[in-house]
What we know:
CATH superfamily: Winged helix-like DNA-binding domain superfamily/Winged helix DNA-binding domain
Radius of gyration: 18 Å
CATH architecture: Orthogonal Bundle
Structural class: mainly alpha
Shape: globular
Distance between the termini: 29 Å
Number of helices: 6
Strand order of the largest sheet: 1-3-2
Amino acid sequence: MNEKARKECVNAMFELYPRARKMMYESFDKLEDDLTRTQQIILLALAVKDNLSMSQLASKICTSNEQATRAVTQLVDKGLVNRMQNKTNRRVVNITLTQKAKDHLDAAKKAALAEGASKAAQLSDEDLQAVSTALRTILDVVSKIDTGDVIY
């Protein structure tokens, strides 16, 4: 692949990312749950890998330990996450989702699916199939170069 094609590929990913992110967060916004973006990102990160230490969580969402701690404290107060002392190292605090958070994430996913279905209804069957195939191909290819944790 030549340099021009590589640049076009990277530019397309940079263009796709904010659109996908916007669609995802719009589904949270419809729930009217008063969660900040950081809190939403924490819930999504824990949905992918539950039971993270505070420093692992902060690293995963690309924020400071202090900011993650503040957001987690608010999520604990809302009953969405649990904070537990690590059994092998008492200085480490692990964060897990509560059932309330799992239910909340299910509601957000349903809202996103409903919104996506509504938007997809505007597409022809051919366009919808093309988008589906393209996204599957993107996921398959990007997973080959994936460097590990997903960053939210």
